[in-house]
Amino acid sequence: MEMVPRMVAERPVVIFSRSTCCMSHTIKTLISGFGANPKVYELDEIENGQQVERELHKMGCKPSVPVVFIGQQLVGGPKQVLTLQVKNQLAPLLITAGAIWI
């Protein structure tokens, strides 16, 4: 379980996604709508996608996509991200991580 931490260290916002997943698209659109430029890993398109997905599953991510990390911290899946948005906590989290500036 060392591949995911390396991948999430690359950017303030990292999203693990699947190109055919409508919830993945929704979460990417939501976060990008704030002006953030997340690093997106499409697990069905990258070489080691199945291995990454297994690591995410072992970390407790069920379902395994979409999964969002902000500031190298696991936020969770769509339910957690949308809950943060409804509570007006997503933008402050993105600001603290350095993903957006206001």
UniProtKB/TrEMBL annotation:
Family the UniProt entry places it in: Belongs to the glutaredoxin family. CC-type subfamily.
Domain of life: Eukaryota
GO cellular component, one term: cytoplasm
Species: Hibiscus syriacus
Name this protein carries in UniProt: Monothiol glutaredoxin-S6
Subcellular location: Cytoplasm
Domain Glutaredoxin: 13-75
InterPro entries according to UniProt: GlrX-like_pln_2, Glutaredoxin, Thioredoxin-like_sf
Any Pfam family the entry gives: Glutaredoxin
Main location, first listed in the record: cytoplasm
UniProt-listed PROSITE patterns: GLUTAREDOXIN_2 (PS51354)
Keywords, sorted A to Z: Cytoplasm, Redox-active center
